[in-house]
Amino acid sequence: MRIGSGNSRPSKIVLVTGASRGIGAEVARQLASPDTHVLINYREKAKRAELVADEIVAAGGSASTVAADISDPTDCINLMAHLTKDFHGLDALVLNASGGLELGADPDYPMRINRDAPVRLAQLAMPLMASGGRIVFVTSHQAHFHGAKHVPADYVPIAESKRAGEDALRAMQPEFASRDIDFTVVSGDMIEGTIIIRLLQRRDPDAVAARRTHGALPTVDQFASAIVEAVNAPTSSDTIYVGGSDYFDHH
């Protein structure tokens, strides 16, 4: 476990799911500091996760890695047990991990990873969070505006399941409020350089090209910065939007 330099215990503990690469890894890098310890969750890419942690510690931050398949209920329980035992609580939960375009995934997988897993983690995390804790759900405009805007056919299972995840989490708002836990959704256009773009490019290159006609797509760095802001801002926002101004033309 790479906790970081210095002997003082970080004052903030943040768990980022799906943080071994892409947006999650960049969120971890930007969040981590001597005062903020980031737990880099990964499913199977242990070496990648360790590299992210090494980078953070080398830069003077505080980080460690934790393996868990968040679509597995037992793994989620074990993940929270680890947080309780080693960190005695949690200050912020970034629900970044998602999926659904993987080859060979069963038809139920998008809902398990994009709806059931975030809801389960939020439920398990709440008892570990003190007043002022924060939960951030990361989504896409294609999912957030699903039903109101066109979605590429290959992306529909993700759009449906992530929208279902967002709706289910928003339905938990009264419980969040009763515990003084803030909840924020961060929604972004297609993000340049992500695995989703690469997968869609193979299946439906016209869909990606169509998004680019509206202007430059947000970068991983830009989107990660918005997520970090959602975690660290003194007051929380309901929804933060990144890119895709055309989505708001008739909404």
> What summary fits the major beta sheet?
7 strands, parallel
Helix content: 40-55%
Mean pLDDT: 90
Rg from C-alpha positions?
A: 17 Å
Q: Which strands sit side by side, in order, in the main sheet?
A: 3-2-1-4-5-6-7
Strand content: 15-25%
How far apart the termini lie comes to: 46 Å
Low-confidence runs (pLDDT<50, min 5 residues)? Answer: none
Structural class: alpha/beta
Subunit organisation of the chains: single chain
Q: SSE order, as H and E?
A: EHEHEHEHEHHHEHHHE
Task: Specify the overall morphology.
Answer: globular
Total helices: the number is 10
Q: Tell how many strands the DSSP assignment holds.
A: 7
Q: Could you please describe the fold and organization of this structure?
A:
The protein is an alpha/beta fold and 251 residues long. It contains ten helices and seven strands. The chain has helices at 22-31, 46-58, 73-87, 109-125, 141-144, 156-170, 173-178, 195-203, 205-212, 220-232, and strands at residues 12-16, 36-42, 62-67, 92-95, 134-140, 182-188, 239-242. The chain has a seven-stranded parallel β-sheet, sandwiched between helices. β1, α1 and β2 form a beta-alpha-beta unit. The longest helix is centred in the middle third of the chain and has 17 residues, at 109-125. The protein is globular and about 50 Å long. It starts with 11 loop residues before the first strand and ends in a 9-residue tail after the last strand.
